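Request: When convenient, would you put together a sequence paired with its structure tokens?
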Amino acid sequence: MATKRFKFGTIVNDIPLSYKFYLIYIVGVLLPIMVLNLVFLERITDLIKSREQQNLEISMERARKDIHDFIEGGVSVGYTLAADKNLYEMLDRTYTDSIEFYSMFNEQLRDRMNSYMPVNNQLERISIYTNNQTVVSGGNYQVMNDKVWLSDWYQQAKKATTQVYVAAYRTTENKNLASSTPTLSIIETMDNYRNLNSYEKVLRIDLDISEIYDIIVRERDYLSLYLINGENKIVMSADSGYQHVTDNPYPVFDQWGDSQDDSEGVRVMAVGTANYLKGWRIVGITQGERISQAVLDIRLYAAGLATTLTLLTSIFIYIMLRSYNYRVKRLARHMQKVTNEKFELIAIDEGRDEIGGLIHNFNRMTSRIHSLINDVYKLEIQSKNLEMERVRAELNFLQSQMNPHFLFNTLNAILVVCTKNKYNDVTDIVKSLSKLLRRLLSWKEDLVSVREEIEFIDMYLRIEKFRFRDKFDYTFEIDEQSLDYKIPKLSMQPLVENSCKHGLQTIEGLGVIKVAAAVLDNRLQITVSDNGKGMDPEKLKELMFAVRKEDYSGTHIGIRNVYRRLELNYADQVRFEISSTPDQGTVVTFGIPLKLLEQNYSPEREV
């Protein structure tokens, strides 16, 4: 026995470590996962099938009970009315004229039926038909005529062997079948009092058939339900709806096949046991794909779980193998680099095992050698670079101070010359340009009032007006309430510049730019519009894509910067919209909630 143990231990020790990991993975992990999945998958499949069968039975019973209660509610109202002796007396009386009938109608009959409607939502209408010709037709009371006697519901009621009859039929307003309406009614012959049978009286209670349809549709995820009457006709189904406009309004149910057994996927359940519901039943056809889909889902889940576990364990084995093999190779490679005076650190997770200790000590040794050789040299280079950056910054600062002053001095010189020579147009433009540049340099804050932005745009448009002359004009429509609200500076000017540059330069006739600001629906609404060449839908779509894309670097920079700054300041609260029509113009609008805006409160405004 000892010899066998020794030989077995020798064999194990001779196996390379990488192969040992593979054997551990296959025998200890992969095989158990596969066996467990195969054993339990069949058991879980059986449980799912059993659960789905129970769900189908519950769905069937739930639909049957709701439809039964729905019909029973109408039957209960019918029993109550059929037992109302006072109602019999009023309908069995012979009235001398319509005035006498209307007097009785106002005293006793007017609201007699309506009292049942609010507490019985399933009732659509209650009507009593009588052949008493002294009764005036109207409301809930109707005098029988040829149309009633020949109607489908009346004929069904006469053929019925019970006092109460549930009838499914279609009512038509004219001879055109296309205008027919499906109706489900409870019909009851009112003959409970022998001494009050001078005239024929028939009670008809119309039910709201849409509620039955809702019940059937509600269970569509489980079963295809059919409401079948005693003549084996489909009164209602999820597929056929209300059976609108068909040559055969209530088709015969022919989906039985050769068997009615549940195993064939057809379930049958009587709606109720009452005589008036004899033959009425609910037929449910199993959606076989539901159970198949449920089984498929669990199998896919099990396969996905097994795949995931296999993948995770494979990754684990790979990491364990790589843990020692990769680190040893990296250590040997970096030691070779040190001999070539390349002091590179091993940039990996060292770990706390023996190999990790070797890598840690190697990195410490390499770092100290590298520091002793290069630190002083690097510090000198860094100090020289810092000095050069400082000098460059000073030069840029002096240049940024010189350029505006030089530009203002030049503009002032031009202004003096234009004034002496009475170049009034040029003088105004130079003044506007000077003010515009000073405003740009003086704006230190990120937020400015709408008033300041409008003044800046006015100066800009004066310059553009000078350029375009008679081909260009502009208007302002500014609500006084909006002037003191603060917005990011230069939020409106790029939109105006875009209209001048892209909207008006290529059109014939007078180009007009309109700038509007108003307070609407608790928002500051800014609008810039023009009557320029506009854009087609494709180009507008391309523009909106460019405006909203974060890393876009092509054209439309100005309008995109406006959108991005509004988005950065107000997140998704800002509404930014562009609409355009070819040859009619473009409208750019953005709205900011007032609660997000600061507001200037000058002393004059408060007074």
